[in-house]
Amino acid sequence: MVGRTIPFAVLFTRTSPAITPRTQRHIEGRFAESEIPVLQTRLCDREAYRAIFSYGGTLSGLDGKNVSNIEVAIRNARAYAGEVVERLRQAKNVAKVA
Length: 98
Known about the structure:
By secondary structure, the protein is mainly α.
């Protein structure tokens, strides 16, 4: 409505932490060709993320006896949050210059 640019980026979720399927590489390539910004961090398909919906709470509040690889999921979520914060800071700095 006010004609301002809204910064954005694509987040890939439920990706495999072990392999990148050919279809995903194709999609990522098309985004790159179209100059669509994509976050480097992907939220991988992890049991810990699914467990939050079953048990409630937060990643750090999950019981390691019932859910595997909680620390890996926490590092993945922190990397995502850190990248978003950095992009917001960059966007804010660009807005100040403009």
